[in-house]
Queue: 2 jobs
Job 1
Amino acid sequence: MARLVMKFGGTSVADIDRIRNVAQHVKREVDAGHQVAVVVSAMSGKTNELVRWCAELSPLYDPQEYDAVVASGEQVTAGLLAIALQTVEVTARSWQGWQLPIGTSNAHGSARILDINGDEIVKGFEDRGEVAVIAGFQGIHTETGRLTTLGRGGSDTSAVAIAAAIKADRCDIYTDVDGVYTTDPRVVGKAQRMDKIAFEEMLELASLGAKVMQVRSIELAMVHNVRVFVRSSFDKPEDIDPHGTPPGTLICDETEIMEQQVVTGIAFSKDEAQISIRRVQDKPGVAAAIFGPLAESNINVDMIVQNVSADGATTDLTFTVPAADYQRANDVLTKSKSQIGYDRIDGATDVAKVSVIGIGMRSHAGVAAQAFKALAERGINIRAITTSEIKFSLLIESAYTELAVRTLHSLYGLDKA
Amino acid sequence: MARLVMKFGGTSVADIDRIRNVAQHVKREVDAGHQVAVVVSAMSGKTNELVRWCAELSPLYDPQEYDAVVASGEQVTAGLLAIALQTVEVTARSWQGWQLPIGTSNAHGSARILDINGDEIVKGFEDRGEVAVIAGFQGIHTETGRLTTLGRGGSDTSAVAIAAAIKADRCDIYTDVDGVYTTDPRVVGKAQRMDKIAFEEMLELASLGAKVMQVRSIELAMVHNVRVFVRSSFDKPEDIDPHGTPPGTLICDETEIMEQQVVTGIAFSKDEAQISIRRVQDKPGVAAAIFGPLAESNINVDMIVQNVSADGATTDLTFTVPAADYQRANDVLTKSKSQIGYDRIDGATDVAKVSVIGIGMRSHAGVAAQAFKALAERGINIRAITTSEIKFSLLIESAYTELAVRTLHSLYGLDKA
């Protein structure tokens, strides 16, 4: 017997038939003798509808009321799934965030989970053999007694946090892909599904554009060491052997991964823009003069490259921002020209960031050097480089993205046999 | 300054534009200096959609889960109206049943309100000048912590109960008609809107087919002496003088009505069927033998007429049931024929019940006799008669319904000048 959390997103519960299908997935695990807590999102489209209504009434809606409105979507799905489970003779009941409760911060619309009381869930398991169907995405700020929501993709975070609270053996994330791949299979036909990936690697992959899970939920899983299994919700429940090993990717502590590869995945993002500030005065405080105004304007600066000054007086400074913020960043910097002191701004929006991720890099030297060589052989120019312990990222011309990803995927031995 | 409850039904909050319109109604009262609690239903159609989903999953759905699903509709409207109010600079917040709380019985799907804590509403009025926007129709069973709903039309009951809890001066029911009429204006063109009607009279009118308000909510208003004002939600908010007397009908204690008319209204219902059991044995226990099985089959028996036996051994017994239950009632009685002991059953579904209501009847003799005479003059045959202190009902052939209603409406001086 294991204790499981099963999470189903909006497309998996989009209509009554799919909710019935989810019930079969749950029943399979219950029949195999497991204790199960299910976390559900709103039926797909519902959250958007509710958000649109709030925005129609006021672009500056009260986030407390927004949360009261939007949290209703998950409430509906939880109740419906409980009914669907009872219909197939699985004992089940729904739980809303405030009923457990799932205590959160007061940051309405993007609240953080502070504390989950899992006692009632476990009591349901042990006293009544009952499946807990929990509304994801929502919680309560206990001091004010008001509903909160966790922000987009919050149901993943709910699922992981509940798994931590009830000490689940595993948190299964049912999604529209059957696992985490070494890179985007649409770009590299030879991309492979990984059986396992370490939390740190998944975190880098997720931040860098792989859209399988929310970054927040992976951080949470890492901190609480919750084993997360990403699998497909489109597999037919009756085709799955509950005692076998279903297709999917386990996100876990690196110690669980016997043979760690040097490189586990390649991520990329085309939504990047490059800004180079030419002949900036090379003196203390100039970085603050540049990045301060950008931060105030809520522009997320990513790769920053500053060369050592050649003339001792001025230097060039290059960084990237999301492509959507490119014009705004230019405006901010132009306005601050006199305070910063620079010659001119160059920029480009036809750039892409390619990242190579692998925990094994920590103990292997020269991993990045191999990449520089392989890309140079293909005539791909590298505009900027940043590195961390377990990844490095390269800024290149975006036309070369697919070529670069394929080249690196082969180079590090990730191609499917 | 007065303290008001304003209740808006599903059609009044059917879309974002109508919710904005409701906000203007509320703002008008707030600007006039009143303390306001608003009770809202779900957007029209939403509750039906949620109910349908539950029923699709299982005709025998768990009523606890049904309540969790269905209560979400009012939650959405309450949050949206709070946003709409803030947009027009009215301080407001939403309250769900469990937040106040509104404590109810455990009868999921048709729970009774047991206790409302109005402290937070009043605190909002007095400390923050805040409008309370309360989700109608829902509550919480505090022992189990589960959501409950009050059954169809429950928002009227919520509104009256909240008015009682916060000692409101008046409970305004905004609906699609502009008040209570002496009879159905579609049948009698000369029907008049009443300025005032006593609780007891309204109770009779509501039970007898006038669909303005739920019977339960009027009972509650009578017990707690909550003055209820029925008015139209289609009046333009800007056309209403908050200090004037708007069109509508006040339902109140009879002592508030200076000059009580003998008859205040005529109600009628065509959804009736008549059953006559011929030559029933006239002995103790026979009524139980007839009505026991009907009650067990959940068939609501209304008018019962039993003549004094002529031969001392058998008698005829006539009663009415809802037309929809006619066949079922016949089947039940046929099955019990040997236990009951009777000759045969006659029946008719082409019958209608016409009722004349008025508190003044208590002190006026001969009111019913006038009706018998007037109907006889029109050739309308009376099949059965029942009377109570403040009303009498006549069973007639349904083809004569409109004629009878118009005749009685004129007879008792209710025609508009």
Job 2
Amino acid sequence: MADAKKDTKTRILNAAKTLFYMTGIRATSVDAIAEKAGITKRTLYYHFQSKDELITEYLRSRDQLNLQAYKKWFDDEEGEITDKVRAVFNGVSETTSHPKWRGCGFQRTVGELANKPGHPAIKTASLHKKNVEEWFAEEFRRYGLINSEATARYVFLLLEGALSSMLVHHDPAYIHESANAAILLIAQGMRVKGATDS
Amino acid sequence: MADAKKDTKTRILNAAKTLFYMTGIRATSVDAIAEKAGITKRTLYYHFQSKDELITEYLRSRDQLNLQAYKKWFDDEEGEITDKVRAVFNGVSETTSHPKWRGCGFQRTVGELANKPGHPAIKTASLHKKNVEEWFAEEFRRYGLINSEATARYVFLLLEGALSSMLVHHDPAYIHESANAAILLIAQGMRVKGATDS
């Protein structure tokens, strides 16, 4: 019984995640989610208080998944820190070149909620983006960059620009050139450290 | 009579621009635009074929306006190219800190149209973003950067990341640190030139 309840909840969330990502959050009605999940609207509201809760859960479910993908690309690459960061951007290039890719779900959702500044999904998106930036900072500290936090923010900003530009232009060159800029800035951070150490 | 016709058309477009920017394109109905413009839906469709045409015109109207703002901040600043680029980011910081700022209209519209890849508004957005990037490249060529096109793309990507991050975090530090990264990359382009020249 508990399992069946969990299954229904998962099914609703999966339906919401697919529809929100594929068509956008405003374009997706609660009716469409219930229909896709094969349940009634009443059952949906038994499991989730509101559409807003579903939007927030949709983003929450992507937080660690996206971060794990970045970490895997980084960890699987052997070599210097610059090679590893390049590998993250290469992974992003491959993912975003998939015909079903429709932008960064966090960026798109925040964009749709621009007139609802207090929406919990915006906080979830902000937290996710902070997690990505903080992960870069951790790795840069581990690799001995002297200005690891500033560099992490630069790389994060370049990644955000790459994701946004990929949706506008659908040209992976923007991602590779974003990686080039990231690597120049990381190398600069390493040179600064070298200069200080010597 | 021709003037009255033009006035009506302008009034419709202004109503559409305000509503699209303030609440989003999906959240804005043609009825709401007609009501705000103080006309009937029939009159609206006399001037514009479709909502899609209004969305495209909304973005088209912002293309040169945004670009002119960047150019003004750049031109009004006296000093080195790095000071001028800093001035552009400062201008963006001020604009985006306004309580009525709701993100980059181009980014948000493209995000909402992610499931309509052939939409003419996406082409308009892509063209605008190319115009911004190309303008940076022109200025960098004028100021003698050896890798002006690559640097223009880096600065453009940082600006996109700054705009996107500002909507997520509402923290102008992201814009100022984006400027820092841009200036490091420009300075690097200038050093490369110096090295080649000497």
